[in-house]
Amino acid sequence: MATFLVVGVAFLAYRQKTKADKRAEWWKRAQWTIDNSLSEDAQKQDVGLTVLQTLGKSGLATKEDSALFEEVSSAVYGEYLDEELDAALAEEAPAGDNDETNGEGGTDANDHDG
What we know:
Largest sheet: none
Number of strands: 0
Radius of gyration: 29 Å
């Protein structure tokens, strides 16, 4: 009976160590993924976000990990959307629309009292 108890304890210790090792490797990948997601390089950012989604669905991810990944994704996508909006607004603005002195009641450079 004592032999079964020793084998059972050894097996549980082995399972716990294996899970901890997998979790440590998972976290190394998560750190790499977060770093790439926040990169200025668009290609690295795309790869990072794709892997981030996959790691977030892993059985090794805790609720806190998933929440962190969601925040990183939101920050990156939010920044991307802000940049896209700025670019779209810049394209829509006419080039000569900055002349505020030519409006009604304003002065024009060609108006001279002489």
